[in-house]
Amino acid sequence: MSKNAENLAAQIRAATGGAPVRIGLILGSGLGHIANEVDGVAIPYDNLPGFPHAGVSGHNPNLVIGNLEGVSVAVFGGRSHYYESGRGDAMRLPLEVLKELGVDTMIATNAAGSLQADMPTGSIMCLSDHINFSGLNPLIGELTDARFVPMKDAYDPEVRKGLRAAAKAADVDMADGVYAWYSGPSFETPAEIRAIKMLGADAVGMSTVPEVILARFLGLKAAAISTITNMAAGMSDESISHEHTKAMAPIGAAKLEKVLRHYLRSIS
């Protein structure tokens, strides 16, 4: 673990009272309001030296430490994406800090485009696996043999089981599917979507995969849920844009919040 992560964790503990944190949540586009529901302390990323600036509209660049449904959580109101800096490891330091704070499980959320007609806008999908369509990797440059991270069950089976049970308890339909990571920031072409679909993807987006690889590298259990904000290019007549993504995100976000709350209650 880097010395910077240790120093930041100490700074955060001093600001929040020092209680161990159990679950880390990374919030995607349109989901930042969930951070406002945490009973705790919000620390702007700008106050955490070395933290990436979340420069995407629709994100809320604060780290919130506190209690949600009886569970101690650390909530990232936004993430840094590869397309902002060209760095696949942009979220490494924040995740190292989570590890230093005692987190054992990271749950990421994202906005994604659907490749399946029966998973329309407003749906949510629990990731069962991913396809790194970008070919990038946040561990490029890591010098130790720890870089050779096995990715079988990258999305922890027990956490996924708990999330599915939470969805059932919340009376929320939640699909299971494979997420393809596309680097962005431009959206995919219809030809790229056809290719990704043939490879087995159910949804596509521009985040999450780097964080999951980093989480596994750091020994954290990982899970992720997508909110479907649009049909992917060529799948419908929708006009795809970031503004459209932000406008549609709240539809799935309300379902996702119910699932997360039920899950946290189940482990509290």
What are the SSEs and their pairings?
Layout: H1 3-16, E1 23-26, E2 39-44, E3 62-68, E4 71-76, H2 82-85, H3 92-100, E5 105-114, E6 124-131, H4 157-169, E7 175-181, H5 190-199, E8 203-205, H6 209-217, E9 221-231, H7 242-267
Parallel strand pairs: 1-4, 1-5, 5-9, 6-7, 7-8
Antiparallel strand pairs: 2-3, 3-4, 5-8, 6-9
Helix pairs in contact: 1-3, 4-7
Question: Can you put this structure into words, describing what you see?
Answer:
There is one protein chain. With 268 residues, this protein is α/β, with parallel strands linked by helices. The protein has one domain (3-267): 3-Layer(aba) Sandwich (Rossmann fold), CATH 3.40.50.1580. It contains seven helices and nine strands, in the order αββββααββαβαβαβα. It has helices at residues 3-16, 82-85, 92-100, 157-169, 190-199, 209-217, 242-267; strands at 23-26, 39-44, 62-68, 71-76, 105-114, 124-131, 175-181, 203-205, 221-231. A five-stranded mixed barrel has the order 5-8-7-6-9, surrounded by four helices. A hairpin with a 2-residue loop joins strand 3 (62-68) and strand 4. The radius of gyration is 17 Å and the shape is globular. Keywords: Glycosyltransferase, Transferase. Pfam families: PNP_UDP_1. One of its GO terms (biological process) is nucleoside metabolic process. Belongs to the PNP/MTAP phosphorylase family. It comes from Yoonia maricola.
